[in-house]
Amino acid sequence: MDQQSQIAFVRAVCVEFLGEHLGSQLTALARPGFGLSPAGGSRPAAGRSRLGGPALLDPGTPWPYEDDLPLNLYAVLDTDELAPWLGDELPIRPGLLNFFGIDHLQVCQIIPADPARAIEVTPPDTVPFATVALHAEPCLTLPDPWWGATLEHFIEGFGLDPGPDLTGICDPSEQVTELFAGDFPGQHYPTSGDLDQAFGWPPSVQPGPPLPDLQGEYTHLLRLSSNLGDWEFAEGGSLHFLIPRQALRDGHFQQAVIALDDG
Length: 263
Description:
It contains six helices and 14 strands. It is an alpha+beta fold and 263 residues long.
């Protein structure tokens, strides 16, 4: 399904559940992203995108450290493969993005590399995570209903105008997850059952806002769960990489942050 067809589908579902006034506003929040899963068979790899393994760095780029600890290489995203779907969500062409971090220390580095020059670099004195080629499924994403305990909280948090008669649509105290029941979750999340994701609004595994600044000043770059790679995050949760939107436009990846969404 092309992006315009997905937008039309998401709008139809939002309007069905929320009415024209509020449903159109929610549709306008949709962001393009990708559901991530291991490549294989009919699921081709997204260029050189992968989990674990050696990093893909420009010659002479050192492996990043935090004090005396080498950071883990969690993933590489081949943004040249992702850029056509992302549009304005990726305002620059950074080539390959290497995602390093130590989750329990809340530290990370994202290091871009030129695809034409990048070489494989193994971590010093440690065994790298197993390499898993990644398939990227294009999708549209919406803010996760878990971010609001009730519909009223969700509407307030994203600055939506509920219109003159919200109670005519539903009970304002109704759980947002119940509001989005039925067929919608399969399109709300990037892929059915896959919560690993590049770009787009990140899915959550618990109620409440796990990530900074829900009003959109951050771009979500990557979400990794505890069941896709060679790692286990706190309480079976997930690790998110984010960057201020202006820093992404300027190519300042040293301003990236990570956030743990523990299960």
